[in-house]
Amino acid sequence: MSITAVVKKNTYFDSVSLMRISTQANTIEGIEQAFVAMGTEMNKAVLDNLNLLDDQLRAAGTGDLMMVVVPAPGLDGGQFIGQIEQLLTAKAPTGDSDIVYKTIAGAKEAIPEANFAVIAVNGAFAASEARKALNGGLNVMLFSDNVSVEDEISLKQLAHDKGLLMMGPDCGTAIINNVGLAFSNNVRPGYIGVVAASGTGSQEVSVQIHALGAGISQLIGTGGRDLSAEVGGIMMIDGIRMLAADPDTKVITLVSKPPAPETEAKVLEEIAKAGKPVVVYFIGGDEEAVAKAGGHFAASSFSAAAQAVALLDGGSPAETNIDAERIAAVRANAQEGQQYIRGLFCGGTLADESMYALLADDHQVYSNMGKDPAFRLGPNDQSREHSFLDFGEDEFTNGRPHPMIDPSLRAQRVAAEAEDPSVLAIVMDFVLGYGAHEDPVGATIPYIKQAKETAAAQGRELEIIGYVLGTDADAPSRQAQIKQLLDAGVTVTASSTATGQTIRALAAKEN
Amino acid sequence: MTNPLFNSKLSVINVGLQMFADDLAAQGTDVAHLQWTPPGGGKPEVIAALEKLAQPQTAAKIEAANAEVVKRITEAKPMLVGYAKALDVVPGMTPTTILHAGPPVAWEDMSGPMKGAVTGAIVFEGLAKDLAEAAEVAASGKITFSPCHEHSCVGSMAGVTSASMYMHVVKNETHGNYAYTNLSEQLAKILRMGANDQSVIDRLVWMRDVFGPMLAEAVEITGPIDLRLLLSQAIHMGDEAHNRNGAGTLLLFQALASGLLQSSFSTEAKKEVFDFIASSDYFSGPTWMATAKASLDAALDVKGSTVLITMARNGVEHGLRVAGQPADRWFTGPAQQVIGPMFAGYKPEDSGLDIGDSAITETYGFGGFAMAAAPAIVSLVGGTVEDATAYSLEMLEITTTTNPNVTIPALGFLGLPTGIDVRKVVETGILPLINTAIAHKEPGIGMIGAGITHPPMEAFEKAIVALAEELG
């Protein structure tokens, strides 16, 4: 019989606790017999009767704790001492749901199985909290923005070294193990893995994949700055590698606003090694370079989804549909000079995709997104000609919630745009899902009605185009939101890409 | 390194926006939403200090040092080995030295209760004929004032300790160091509370001539008494051993009784001593302070730590000392008001600010930290047993470990929260909870209530900035 005995000097436990601990220790698998007691004469006599008393135990005093383990045959008793010590320092019962934690470290200590932190605090404290989470072994989704690029690089480097995800800063969307995080949609589980530097862009790709009958394995957000020259795509490259190693991911899809060229090159190098088909949707990306790297170039968000699904099924990619009849009718009914599109968006990538659809036809477009100061539109500026506003940009969200959470500011703008007789159509997105407003369409409908009435009173028809980003599993459902729009006379599009194509056709200079 | 995330059940800690946690819970995902506040009150220099100390290499060194500190605290085995005159045992004591509670303070800056106690002690020592002359002597520069804590001592309330007062002599058997504290004066109108009339002086004389010597003989007869064991039992019996000492006093008296009976004093003197001990549950209060002091001082020289070994107040300032720092390095902030029930006839504006070395008990992990063990005095913290339990659990957030040797039955025999970490206090904004008595702000009156208070955050902020400079 092998015995392991440890004497902890000057460690006192009351006999009641020790009885409880001995009882628990005897239930540990692999322990034949365990004895945890103070070194009193009585306890030593008991051990002696059991033939367990060795010299070390014989020397134990009344103030010393004796731990004695008889392991199952063939096992080493030493491995169980640690487990018994854990019983000695057992925490208070944690069944109580009222326990509140103040710090990441405190929560992690109490919940050892925690593996993920979602952090959405003021930017001044965000990097520090993220660092604590990473150092505690947690994967991180950092929703906060206003984090310096130096902090972003050091956080991502730390995560890389530790083999953890560092999604963000400024990461608003992720789906991990079929759980939607922050702003995300209830999409079907499936085999397409997404790594995205754009929040609404990845939401759009995921819901279009869902609409096409496929599903998502993982959706990893990187934050909008990941593909900058400074950050160098650390998270996107790690994300590609994780999806490449994930047996549930069969096709990988990458989504980003225009990346820095040197970073784009690094990422494309990585896709060649992925060993799986990779669809690349980088707005303004280089088709040839993608093809050369072995990737599948997508020119639009819909194309990204359709190609991913086709690569999975082996079919040919689905095409977008637009309502040509409706477009022709709107153009035919337009008054003299009624020719401009006004885009009022809450999703940045959706706004981009629509704006680029007009820019592709060399229209002049004013916006709060473009870099050219000549075409810059401030939040309080009146719209002119073709104008696009992303209400999710900082100048609209400073001190107020994001329009996905509070649609009221944008809704009021609909009514204002209707006063302008040069406006042919107003185009809007409605983003559903986790984190989003519980009824974005309902909150906007009164203003849409008012806008239509304003135009009608002045003898014009005002076209309103609405795109609902979401699935029928979201709350509210996509279908219910669409019905409200149709009832209010809104033209509903089926994807972000189709929305862009629709306004491009509406604004076309020649038939 | 392979990230096992995709093969694990998602378990999320949510920091900041509550709605993200709600959405996760609605999806059936395990999520803990933090009650988060900006660390360091959002002060940039404090956050920078925390960040510096959080660098993995630095943090690892600190963790190792802190582990050693709490190991010493929990393994210390304080034994009551005797009672003796301060002049005979206290390091650095002279006939004209007066020790006081808290961080250093000059005579002219002392609070009312402390001035009352100092002048009373000067009369008691025969250094002045009356209180008026005593005030002159105190101001003359002839008296050496020094904090108890810098002489292996602690003193409750004003903590005023002079040469001929009898002290507990407590030896930490594990590490060999000693701690001292004077004897309980029992009733409310007492020197440590700032009272100093003739009845107070007469009692001090009796304590010097009868009470102290009889206790000393008793321990000689009984042999050393294991104080940690008694403390542990007292806490199982419903004391938190700072403001409630009923069980502890019975246990200590039980341990001493035989020795007192066998001492060489007259039956009349023994009756006086028994009656005196019976007159107040506080008899063992100072004993537990010395128990804590002997344990915490064992960690004095552990370098590179962020764990407190002292929280002490002089009625004007609250001072902290950190393990491994020079013994005379105090991080201070203003002493706070004590909030709690008061004796009939007194109002909150009568109360002096927080005073005394008794927060050594919380520094060790009992007192306010063990509120869950003492439901009988929950009125101090707001009235419900749940409040008391919550306070003890909250202290886990700012401490390093739990003490397996002293446990709280109501919390599933959870050990005392042990090793207050300056980093955790600053990061969480949770201040240590201190149970304490309230002295009248004017000299000469005494105790007027009891309640709870906290150290000032300012002292922790000063400490963290200094520690970051040294350890970061």
Automatic annotation (TrEMBL), chain A:
<dbReference type="GO" id="GO:0009361">
    <property type="term" value="C:succinate-CoA ligase complex (ADP-forming)"/>
</dbReference>
<dbReference type="InterPro" id="IPR005811">
    <property type="entry name" value="SUCC_ACL_C"/>
</dbReference>
<protein>
    <recommendedName>
        <fullName>Acyl-CoA synthetase FdrA</fullName>
    </recommendedName>
</protein>
<feature type="domain" description="CoA-binding">
    <location>
        <begin position="192"/>
        <end position="283"/>
    </location>
</feature>
<dbReference type="GO" id="GO:0006099">
    <property type="term" value="P:tricarboxylic acid cycle"/>
</dbReference>
<dbReference type="Pfam" id="PF00549">
    <property type="entry name" value="Ligase_CoA"/>
</dbReference>
<dbReference type="GO" id="GO:0004775">
    <property type="term" value="F:succinate-CoA ligase (ADP-forming) activity"/>
</dbReference>
<dbReference type="GO" id="GO:0005829">
    <property type="term" value="C:cytosol"/>
</dbReference>
<feature type="domain" description="ATP-citrate synthase/succinyl-CoA ligase C-terminal">
    <location>
        <begin position="344"/>
        <end position="499"/>
    </location>
</feature>
<dbReference type="GO" id="GO:0004776">
    <property type="term" value="F:succinate-CoA ligase (GDP-forming) activity"/>
</dbReference>
<dbReference type="Pfam" id="PF02629">
    <property type="entry name" value="CoA_binding"/>
</dbReference>
<dbReference type="InterPro" id="IPR003781">
    <property type="entry name" value="CoA-bd"/>
</dbReference>
<dbReference type="InterPro" id="IPR016102">
    <property type="entry name" value="Succinyl-CoA_synth-like"/>
</dbReference>
TrEMBL record, chain B:
<dbReference type="InterPro" id="IPR024033">
    <property type="entry name" value="OXTCase_su_AllG_h-dom"/>
</dbReference>
<dbReference type="Pfam" id="PF06545">
    <property type="entry name" value="AllG"/>
</dbReference>
<dbReference type="InterPro" id="IPR009499">
    <property type="entry name" value="AllG-like"/>
</dbReference>
<protein>
    <recommendedName>
        <fullName>DUF1116 domain-containing protein</fullName>
    </recommendedName>
</protein>
